[in-house]
Amino acid sequence: MLPNQRLVRRMAKTRKILHLDLDAFFCSVAEQLDPEIKGKAVVVGAKPSERGAVASASYPARRYGIKSAMPMGQALRLCPDLIIVRPNPRVCVERSKAVMDILLEAAPLVEPTSIDDVFADVTILRAPIGEIAQSIQRRVNTEVDLPCSLLRRGHVCDDLNGAICEVSERFISNTSNPARKEGETDES
After folding, report:
1. Banded pLDDT at 95 (limits 50, 70, 90)
2. What is the separation of C-alpha 90 from the centre of its chain, rounded to a whole number of angstroms?
3. Vertex 33 angle, CA 32 and 39, to 5°
């Protein structure tokens, strides 16, 4: 058996898939553009007069019970001092591309599922998946200044604030990810 055949057989048995989720992505980008709103109850979306909905809620806004897809009027009733920011699609695409570029440098196969959610197959890389995940997360945090969560084997790493997780199937990862993000509880 040739060395490459052994590698292919090993890869077929055990895949190392990372799931990267950018936390409160649209709000994080809005905070980069306007540092004055950082740490405040902020949502990104349309005004209530435009029958808008919440596209993204900051963690302080989530503490009031505000969630994505909630009607903006309802969000304002929950938090009258809520700051509503219009999305900046151009900047969001730029930041998302910067994150994807980091992943493409680190992983041989990358599959984005949305602007703030991506899977990376790192099976072929020799380093342990935890080291790969931490390296990617550090780069995203420092180079793009965006928070992302790190979950590995069902346990959130306390020293990292991000959702990269080791999974065998992407669907299972995305639908049953038990990681809690800042400000969320088991009930959220």
Report:
1. very high
2. 18
3. 50
